[in-house]
Structures
1.
Amino acid sequence: NFGAINWGTNAKFVKVEMDPAGGSNYTNVGVNQLMSVPYAMVADKVNMNSVNSSLNDDIVDNRFSNFAIYNSSDSKTYVFNSKTNTWNGQLGGSASSGYIIASNGNFAIYNSSDSKTYVFNYKTNTWNGQLGGSASSGYIIASNGNFAIYNSSDSKTYVFNSKTNTWSGQLGGSASSGYITASNGNFAIYNSSDSKTYVFNSKTNTWSGQLGGSASSGYITASNGDFAIYNSSDSKTYVFNSKTNTWSGQLGGSASSGYITSSSSN
């Protein structure tokens, strides 16, 4: 009964028996594994709109929502982690704009009492603090559950990598517009002291620098975690490839509108 077979689980095999004389005295001629299953048998299960499909419910079940609240009585921010079904508190945050920032289930809060930014990582269910940041615009930037903060006391940008649950710092960046650019959990910062652009790659948990770029509009372009910068000193455009963790340069491009165009693929 083909209709009673669950084609979505385990390997399936077909056994062939035949009688060359056309009778019922069958002889086994082989067993072969099915490398694909009959489409008609599984199509209705894959169709999310079908009453017979549980796929949509499975997807919804895998979604989650975490919540952060500020408690003015003890000056703490509490995060509810739906994965662990627990609350976890940390001094800092505020109900004022800029003090609590959310990204992919994680939260960053600024604690003005110790001048630190704390990140709650839902995967580890822990808080992790770093000097720097501010509730002012531009000091904390979020991308794909990672956070970049600027520390004006040492002129460094620090990135919290949720995959490694660590902070990593690099000279450069600023809270001013254009100095920190985010894309798919990676960050590019411009360091005006050495005229370089540095990219933090969350996959390798490292910084990589290249002469060129600027905080001015048009000098740093981001797409799918990769970055393109224009270097006016050698008239080249350099691209940082996050997959290979390398820079590659080519004569051409400009910071003027229309000279560098990105095209992302799925």
Note: Residues 98 and 135 are 5 Å apart (CA to CA).
2.
Amino acid sequence: TAPNPILTTLRYFREEYEEHLRGRCPAGQCTALIAYHITESCIGCTLCAQACPVDAIPMRPFERHTIDTALCTRCDACRQVCPEDSVRIVDARKPAHAAGRLAQ
């Protein structure tokens, strides 16, 4: 099936295609389907705000941080530097408060 790469990928990755058609990304990598959320365990260390290349996280020391989803490019820098594992990848189509409860 090399002449038709679409049929080949459908053959081997059908489940993943179907999940994307339902609006879900099993790998959590499709930026249109994911959002970043900071949970209650945030200690306000500001490492995430410092790491954010687009300033989507206001720097407020010792307060729980928030992410401006309109500015966020989903680069994952904030999640990688968080010492408390407070930055979670959530379903972008769910309200932030519900996503926070699910992600904890």
Note: Confidence is low (pLDDT under 50) at residues 97-104.
3.
Amino acid sequence: CVLGFTDASLFEKAVDSVEQSSVHWLSENARHLHRITARFPLIPKEIGPDDLAAEGGLVPRAVSLTKGCFLGQEVVARLHHLGKVQRQLYVITLVGSAQGIGDHVPFEIICSNRSLGEIRSLYRDERVADRYYAVALIKERYVSALVAGTTIGAASLQSICPFETFSC
């Protein structure tokens, strides 16, 4: 629910009313973590115009395979029937300092002089200090190179899982 107020005093009354009830505010960070857990990539930040819907797990959940003509239909149908994409969204759990990553999103993930993919967004775990969740588009052929302990920026990779199966 999103409410808009043109009168500041009405806004203050609404805030007071909510704070006195059992409802609690979620931070923007927490809302994003709920969105990720619900398996909805942020468009166009995490899956954009240069990416394929299947790379973000949007086929067949959010893209019709039976609808009439639409832009990109041939690519979507071909990928669906081949069953494989070259890149996929993953959630990477990082521990340590994410200072250099968060300031430079999208952040290219490089290992052994190879670009493995890029971090598209980064969110802080509000329950555990120095733990972050990064949504990254990773080249499938390099996923196995991302193992626990891999350094990404100044942080250390703790775990990696497909976007579609992530839970906080």
Note: The CA atoms of residues 29 and 69 lie 37 Å apart.
4.
Amino acid sequence: GDGSDLELQKQQWCRTQDALKGRLVLEDDFEWSLPSVSSNSDQSDARGKLKYIGGFDISFLKEDPSTACAAVVVLDADTLEIVHEEFDVVRMQVPYIPGFLAFREAPILLGLLEKLKINAQHFYPQLLMVDGNGLLHPRGFGLACHLGVLADLPTIGVGKNVG
């Protein structure tokens, strides 16, 4: 029945999370730097500056929770001005199961990132922020980790709760 199908699905998702977790980068190895606040600010970093930050979220219709609006908003890291936005109204294909949010939301967010690459590549973000947990997750691999690994971008998870 449905219960055993769900258990099989969860086992598959756990295997996928474990495989992706092996690709997780926890050290700072990006090609950009943040502006220094130290007094020796005339020392220039060989790396470029962080220019664009992409923020992701998905909002669900109260009347129909399987319909959602997914958004990415790109900010200029210096001015915090919005420089680009992409939205998609989507039908959710995967139910919400605690601990497995990434399998519901990551494909949609990655689709938005692809859309952004096509429509405004010059605003492509170097850093992502997403409404969801990263390492603070039952298996140490939440939506932020999942998205970051698949997008190959540093990603910060901003979770409302654990799980």
Note: The beta strands are 32-33, 48-49, 52-60, 67-76, 82-91, 127-130, 155-157.
